[in-house]
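Re: your question from the hallway

Yes, I did run it. Sequences:
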Amino acid sequence: MAAHSDSGRTTEQIVSQFLSKALHAILAARIPYIHGPTPPPSRHPRKRDRWFHLALGDPPPALEHPSGLIPNGVMEPLVVDILLSPRDDPTMPEAIVERWVAQCEAPAPWSPLHSPAETSSNSFLVKRTYKKSIILLRSIYSVLRLLPAQRVFKMLCASNQSYNHDLTYRVSSFAEPFSRKEEAEFQYHCFAPVETQSGQLAVSVQYRPSLSQFNLEISSLLPPMLITDYVGSPAADPMRAFPSSPSERAGTRSSTSFPLRGSQHGQPSTSAPASAPVFFNRPHSWTGGPSEVPSNRAQHPNHPPTGSYRKPAFNFDEFKFSPPFYMSPTPSPPKFSGSYMQSPLRSETAPVSIPQPGSSKVKVLRSPNLSDPTRNFLPPPSPRSARTTDPSSQDSDSRSFRRPDGLRTSDGYSNMYGTPKGLKDGRDDSGRFSLSGSPRFTFSRSSSRISVPDDLDDPDFSYPFAVDDVDSSDSQARSNDGKEVSDFGHASSSHKSQDAAVGVLVHMLRTAAPLRDSTYSSQSSKSELQEEGLGSTSSFFMSRKASDALEELQSYKSIKEMLLSQSKGKLH
Amino acid sequence: MNCEVCELKELVVEQFEIREVLRCILHTIIFHRALGLVRPRDINCELFELTYVQCGVPEVEKEIEEKITEFISKISKHPNRRSHQVCLSFYETKDKQPAWFSSKTERVYWERWFINLQITNQRVNMKPNQTKVGFDPGEKLSSLEEKLHRTALETSVRENLFQIIKFVNEKMDHLPHIPPNAEGISYPYEITILSSSESSLDMLKRMLQTGHQTTLS
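Structure:
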C-alpha cells in the first residue's frame, strides 16, 4: 500500500495527484512514445503507481512534478487538448480532436461541503473521495480507449508506418473557447463529479465523433526532399557513422523543453517544467528535430509555448543519423564505377593471379602444367592466329597427343565458375580461358604434362600459351606471347563484350615482368618449332610449348563446337 | 445494503461473436470494480475496432474464459433458445446466525449486472473471417448483411461499455469499504448463467427469499 494511509491523505493531495494521474493517463493514451523510443520496462509498482490503485508506469518527465501542473493550486482547471497536426504541411492548421477538462469546482454555499466538518467526518470524506477518485480514474482510462482518437493513436504507434499526421497535446489552465461551428462538431461526455472537501472534482471531455475528415494516410518513409548525397554523387559518404543507440538519438531530440502554459501563468518559464523536457519521439519517423519548433512557436505572438510541437520544415541534416537514410541509399558503390567493371572480373579472376616472378601464388596457379591459369588472362586468339594454328592441328601426332587434353580441358572449362556472360559470348573458348582458374582444370591437364610443372615453377618460365605462335625457345615463346597478346587484342576488338576483360588481361600480362623478358624471339621461331618437331630437348621443349599452345587452341575450338552442338541439341 | 442492478442493453450476436462480446463487457465491469492495485492491460478486440481494459489479474481472466466457455456450451445444447443472460454479481460474505442445515455465512449481493444476449444462428458454422467467393448476388448480400450486423454490434457493444461507465460513476455509495492493501480484486464476485426461462427479476426474488448463493447447473 502507499506510504500514506487513506486517512493521512488530504483532499488537496488527492486532487493534485488525481490531476497528475489523469494527465498521465491521457497523454499515455494519446501521444505516441511519450516515454521515448522504448517504453519503460515493467517493474514493481512504485509509490506513485499506488495512487488510486492504478499502476500506469513511469510518468513522462513533464509530470514528474505534479505541482508544476497546477502552480496556483488545485482549484485551477487542467485543460488538455489533443491535437491532430498535419505532418508534411506546417501551414495547415492543427485541429483539436479532444479536449479534456479536469477541475475541482468550489462547492456551492449551500453545499454541506462548504461548511467545515468534524475531523471524523473529514476522514470519512477523505476516504470516500479517494474511493470515488479511484473509480473516476478507471472510467477516464476506459473512455480514453473508446473514443475515436484511440484508433488514430494505435495507427501512429505502429512501428513500421509513418502517417501524414501527428498527435500532439497542449496543456493549459484555461480552455480556449470553440467557435460555434467547432462546438457543433464535438460531442460531450461528462463524468459524474466526485465530491471533495475542496469542491466537486469534475472531469469532462469534448471529442470529435469522427476523424475521417483528416484523411489520415500512410506517408512515405521520407518526406519529399532533395537528396544531395545520392548514390553516385561526390557527396556520398558510405562511411558515415551510425548513431550508437536509439537512446542517444532520443537524447538528441529531447533537449527541447516545452514549458506548460499553466506553469507560465503568472510565473517565469523557468519553473518546474523547465526541468521537465517533454518530447514526442517516434523512432520510426526520424523526422526533423523538435529543436526548431519551440523557437518558432515561442516567437509567434499568438502561439504561446505549449507542450506540443509540430514537425518543422524538413531539415536534411537531421536525417543524417536516421536509419532510413542509411537504408535507402543502398551501399552500391557507383562512385567506384571504374572498378565496377573490374570488380566482377577481379572476383572471378581472383583465383588467377597476375604472374609475378617469385610469386608463390602464381606458382600455385601455374603449378600443374601448361594449363597455365595465366593463359586465362590472355585474350582470345585472333582469327588469323587461329587459322595459323590450324595447320598445327593437322599434325596427327600433335592432334592425337593433344586431343585428350582438349577433352579434359573441355571438362575443366565446363566446370568453370563465375563466367560472366559477356565473356562467354562468341569467343567462348577464349572467354572461358580467361576466367578459368579452376584447379580442376589444371589438374586435369597435369597428367599429360609431366615436365611442365618444373618449367612452370621457373619464375622466368614463359607461358607457352602466352603466345599464339609457338616458339622454339623461351624467348621465342615470350615474344610470341607479346604477339599473341597483340593478336588477341586485335581479335578482341571484334567482340565488344569481351573487350574490357581481355584488355585487362592483356594489360596485366604486359605489365608482368617475366613477360617482358628481352630474350623474346620473333615469330620465325614458331614455324621453326613446327618444323623441328619433338627432336632435341630444347627444341622439344619449345615445340612442346608451341604444341601446347596449339593444343589449347584446338581445345578451345572443340569446346566451342561442343557448346554449339549442345545448344543446338537443346533447341531441338 | 442496497443491491444495485444494472440491466445492460440487449446485444444481438452470432455464436462466434459471443466470446469476444462477453470478454469486452465482463472485463470492463470488473476493471471498474476491482479497486485494488491493478496494472491495466489494453486489449484490442478481434472482431471490432474496439479497445477495452482488463485489470491484469490472471485469475480473473481465467475465470472469465471458463465462464464464457461454459455459457457457449450451454447455449449450444439449447439451440432453440434465443435469449440468454449472463449475470455478474458482487457480494459480501457475512456471518449469520448458525442454524441447522444452513451455512454460517451468507452472501450479500450489493451489485448485479445482467448482460443480455440474443443469439442468432444465421451463420453458425461460418468462421469470423470466412469469405464467400461466388457469383450469386444472394451471397454478396449476405456479406453486406454481415458487415452491417458487425457494425451494429460494435456500436451496441460500445454503448454497453459507456452504459457501464456511466453506471459505475453514478452509483458509488453502495460500494463496500475497500480492504486495506488490496491487490487486484477488492470485492468477491461470481458469474452465473441464467436460462432464458428465468428472468433477472425472478432470480433476484429467489435469491432474496432464500438468501443463498444461486448457481445454475
